[in-house]
From TrEMBL:
Keywords: Signal. InterPro entries: MlaC/ttg2D, Tgt2/MlaC_sf. Residues 1-24 form the signal peptide. Pfam families: MlaC. This is Phospholipid transport system substrate-binding protein.
Length: 209
């Protein structure tokens, strides 16, 4: 599978979940929520593709505006930090620094990929409610007959759906980023501050099998 396409799918899928989350009242089912916002985002990406491709700062601004308020960044930060998120293994300042760095890195990752998004469509799989804390909705993104399944893990907070993690073509993105961070800590000789300062999650590497 083309890695650039998969990276773009991951980024566009993540942003699709949060792009118009003002309508994401829990009165909507997770499936209806995903369908509404994905329709809106895909239409915008197609209409503005040429402008966004030539203006990375503009698409980064779109990602920043539409992603940060509606993603559970703290939960995603804990997931990526893994055992280092424990109060026994890091200070509150280190965790805050990591969250800030992770936000910016994700904006850059997703902005770069979204600028290459074009001519994708999707189909939504039947939604099966979960009795657990999280709901999962799966879309199949389609390009040139090729399907890439993207599963969204959602939680409800303050009458709004928020995304905690995504799975692209069977690959747990949060887990892949956690493995990347653990390797960064190891390369930094266990110096957590150094690892936090240098960590750059690699979405392209994360979606490779």
């Amino acid at each position: 599978m083309n890695t650039l396409f998969r990276q773009a799918i991951m980024a566009s899928a993540l942003t699709a979940v949060v792009s118009t989350a003002a309508i994401a009242a829990p009165a909507q089912t997770p499936s209806d929520f995903i369908k509404t916002v994905a329709d809106g985002l895909i239409g915008r990406l197609k209409a503005e593709h040429s402008q966004l491709q030539n203006n990375p700062s503009a698409i980064n601004a779109i990602v920043k505006q539409n992603l940060e308020p509606y993603v559970d960044v703290q939960a995603f930060t804990r997931l990526v930090m893994g055992t280092y998120a424990s109060p026994q293994n890091s200070t509150p300042q280190q965790r805050a620094n990591f969250e800030k760095s992770l936000r910016q890195s994700l904006i850059q990752n997703y902005g770069t990929a979204l600028a290459k998004y074009s001519n994708q469509s999707y189909s939504i799989r039947p939604y099966r409610p979960s009795a657990g804390a999280y709901q999962v909705v799966t879309l199949d993104f389609i390009q040139s007959g090729q399907k890439t399944p993207v599963a969204f893990q959602l939680s409800e907070q303050s009458n709004q759906w928020k995304i905690r993690n995504i799975n692209v073509a069977g690959i747990d993105i949060g887990l892949q980023f956690r493995n990347q961070f653990a390797s960064t800590v190891q390369r930094s000789g266990g110096d957590l501050d150094k690892a936090i300062a240098s960590f750059q999650p690699d979405a392209n590497a994360a979606t490779k099998k």
